[in-house]
Structures are given as structure tokens and as C-alpha cells.
Design brief:
This protein is mainly alpha-helical. The radius of gyration is 36 Å and the shape is globular. The longest helix has 27 residues.
């Protein structure tokens, strides 16, 4: 055989490390460091804002008691105005008891609210205006019911609901009250809850 003739070479064995070194590098698919930093900063800001809203931006004790005081006045005003217009004797009787309980509750709540910092003659105009608008909407709804000759049933439903709203406001104030005031609120709630049930029963019977 001619020595200059091409002779096939045996295959060379390369180590795995060598093959890894010469292989083209794979592009990274994860987020860039800059995006990660921005995400971390955004998360920290969200936590700070959340903490401010939950722990630092809530309603003050004075505001809670003021809201309760004003809503008690609103319900009392509606009960006094609508009472003479009710036709059913049993509903008028329920309303008379409601007025009695509200009258007693009004003085207790006013005293507790003033102890919490409320000054009844210096309530913020926007707060008073908001409550007056609430009263106006409620009176308009009941006036419409009167025109449609369904005042008794509508009144029972609405006042039962309003007592529930008042109870929610009492619960907020309750959490800021001392032992004696808490007991007073519990007594008020017990009386009003009984009235709310009677109103609900009246509506269901109609």
C-alpha cells in the first residue's frame, strides 16, 4: 500500500467537560436583575401602603362615636315623623316602643360620644351634610311608599334594616369603649334587636 495514501484516523474521545466548554452557551430566560430590584421595591411599597391603611389610616374613635350619635338622631327623626302615618295598630305600638328606646339611647350615646371627644355643636359640616342626605333619601323612599299605599310594610322593612346598620355602628364604637359604656351599648342593642325582630315579623305577616 502506498504510504502516502490517506489512512482513516481512529475516533478521538473527548471528555464531557471539554464538550461543555465548546458548546454554545444557552441564553438566560429568567428576569434581569434590574426587573428583580424593581419588583422587590414595589413589593415593599405595597406593604407600607397596606400597613398605613390598616393601622394608621382608620377612622378615629371620635368619628365612630359621632357617626353613631348622628345615625341615632336620624332613626329617631324618621320614627317620629312616620309614626302618625302608620295605619296598623300593632305597627304603631312597635314604633312607640322604638321611640322610647331611641330616646333613652340618645342620651347615653351622646354622653359616651362627648367623652370620646365629640362636640355636638362643632361636628364637621361635611359629616353633618352627609347624614342629612342619608335622612333625605330615607324619607323620600318612605314618601314614595306612602303614595303607593304600602307605607306600613315598607316602613317595617326599612326600620328593621336601619336598626341593623345602627348595630354595626355600635359595634365599631363598642370596641373603643370602657366597661361601663360597653354594658350600656349591650343593653341598647338588646332592646333594639327585639324591636327589629318585631318589625321583621310584621313584614313577613303582610
Amino acid at each position: 500500500m502506498d504510504p502516502n495514501q490517506y489512512q482513516p484516523q481512529p475516533p478521538q474521545n473527548y471528555s464531557i467537560d471539554y464538550l461543555d466548554q465548546i458548546a454554545p452557551s444557552q441564553p438566560k430566560t429568567g428576569p434581569s436583575p434590574l426587573i428583580m430590584i424593581v419588583a422587590i421595591i414595589g413589593g415593599l411599597l405595597a406593604m407600607i401602603i397596606f400597613g398605613f391603611v390598616v393601622f394608621g389610616g382608620g377612622t378615629s374613635n371620635t368619628d365612630k362615636w359621632t357617626a353613631l350619635y348622628l345615625r341615632t338622631n336620624t332613626i329617631d327623626s324618621v320614627a317620629r315623623k312616620q309614626g302618625p302615618l302608620l295605619k296598623d295598630p300593632s305597627l304603631r305600638g312597635i314604633n312607640t316602643k322604638l321611640l322610647l328606646y331611641l330616646s333613652n339611647a340618645h342620651n347615653d350615646i351622646k354622653t359616651a360620644a362627648e367623652q370620646a371627644g365629640m362636640v355636638s355643636t362643632k361636628i364637621a359640616k361635611e359629616v353633618s351634610a352627609k347624614e342629612k342626605a342619608y335622612l333625605s333619601d330615607l324619607e323620600t323612599k318612605l314618601e314614595d311608599a306612602k303614595v303607593k299605599a304600602v307605607l306600613d310594610r315598607t316602613y317595617a322593612r326599612e326600620m328593621s334594616y336601619q336598626i341593623g346598620v345602627l348595630n354595626s355602628l355600635m359595634q365599631q364604637a363598642y370596641n373603643t369603649a370602657g366597661p361601663k359604656t360597653k354594658q350600656t351599648l349591650e343593653d341598647i342593642n338588646t332592646n333594639l334587636a327585639a324591636i327589629a325582630k318585631q318589625l321583621s315579623d310584621f313584614e313577613d305577616a303582610k
